[in-house]
Amino acid sequence: MIVRILGEGQLRVDDSATAELNELDSRLEAAVERDDETGFKAALDALLARVRSIGTAVEAELIEPSALILPQKDATMAEVRKLLSDDGLIPG
Question: Element (H or E) spanning 24, and its range?
Fold first, then answer.
């Protein structure tokens, strides 16, 4: 699947990582629901770091549809709250 991190670009991530990314997404969503700024930053950093570590950069000149769009590392809780759906950032 293709994952876009806003402000950074796209990464190709194996579909087998979906469950792990969903767990990290759940932590992020829970921190937003609790209005826990410290937990929010930690969860966002963990999610983005994991996507970066397991993903392979998609060449900048190739623009492919993104299956997932994640906020940039300096996103505010209010910005992430707007991106969240009933399933979090990562459906499933």
Answer: helix 18-34
SS3 label, residue 9: strand
Cα–Cα distance measured from residue 29 to residue 71, given in angstroms and rounded to the nearest whole number: 13
Q: In this structure, what token pair is assigned to residue 88?
A: 């979090």
* Residue 88 three-state SS: strand
Q: What is the strand order of the sheet 68-70 is part of?
A: 56-57, 9-12, 2-5, 68-70
Q: What is the pLDDT of residue 55?
A: 97
Instruction: Give the angle 27-8-42 at the CA atoms, nearest 5°.
Output: 25
Percent of the chain with pLDDT over 90: 75
| Residue ranges with strand state E in 1-92 | 2-5, 9-12, 56-57, 68-70
